[in-house]
Structure formats: structure tokens, C-alpha cells
Predict the structure.
Amino acid sequence: MDTAAVTRRPPRRLARPRRWAVLGVLFVMAALTAGWPLIDRAVADHEPVPAGAVLELGQGDDAALLRVTGAGWELSRSRSDPGSSYALSRDGVDLVAGYVDLSGSGDAGQLWTGLRKVLSVADAASRLGGPRPVTSAAGASGLTGPLTRPGRTGTATVWVPPDEDYAVEITVLTEPGTAAGTVADAAAVARSVAFPREAS
């Protein structure tokens, strides 16, 4: 009985398209692994801020304090830096507090004009009304006035310590239908500014 010759062939190489598919999957996995911290940071951008928390804005002796009023506020970590700004949000309200270094060369009136320009650059449809004097819960002096953007209304406030070497600018914008209690808490945060160096 004849036996057919058995021929052995070397294993076939992966076809080029299949090899590229495998490499593509590996590349995507590597990219996701390396980029996961960035994705995680974007997803976890909003950090809860407890009621009563005190935020220090500025550095060293030239710092202001803001007290968070009410529960439910969230801090945007990507838009906040204790040395220069805080961005808080809660149920239809956005509050932004910014530190301005004046180096003894400015006053609240000049700051109001500058703030109007900055807001119009950020959003050409922004409208900042005329200022009126205001006093914070801690006794700081400043100016406040109405601020509007399409679909939002609120206030802008500028706080300046007596030596006028720095200032704090706070904007509060609310969406229509925002609960009155939330709006009141935002106003309380804006009025909570204290300059501890001046009090000592």
C-alpha cells in the first residue's frame, strides 16, 4: 500500500493587513494607558467644596479670604489656582473670583473700567453696568454692579484693601430659573471677602 508523501510546510506568516491590525490595537491600548490620567483629570474636574470652607486667594500677606456659603458648590480644578483664581459652580450659578496685582498703582474706579474691558473680550455680548459702593461682611470696601450675558444675569464686584496693592474681582452669573436660595448663597460668597492683613 502506497503512502502519500507527507510534506511539511512552514507556518504561514501573518498577512500584512492582519499584522497592522494587531499593531493598531497595541498602539490604541498604549495611548489609552498613557492618556488615562488626562481623561481621569477631565472627568474629575469638579471637586465638591463643603459649606463653610474658607478659600485663600493670593499669596503670603497679599491674600484674601472667601467663605463658601451653602452646600453643593463644586470647584473647577482646571480653572482654579489659589494664587490667581477660583471657579465655583452650583445648580445654574457660576462664580469666578480673580486676584489682581496692582502694586500700589490702581484704584477701584480704574479696576471697574478694566474689568469691563476684560469681560467684553471674554464675551462680546457681556454688559457691565455702572458701579455703586459696597461693603463686605468682613468690612472690606468695594464696588459692585449688574452684569449680563446672553441668557444669564448677575453681578460683578471689585474688592480693594486700603493699601490698594492688590484686589479681588468676583463675577456671579445665574441661569433663568435658578433657585433663590442658590442665588442668595452666591451673593453671600461674593460679599464674604476679607483681607486678613488689614485686620491684624
Observations:
- Helices lie at 16-43, 108-122, 180-190, 196-199.
- Residues 16-43 form the longest helix (28 residues).
- Residues 97 and 170 are 4 Å apart (CA to CA).
- Residues 12-44 form one domain.
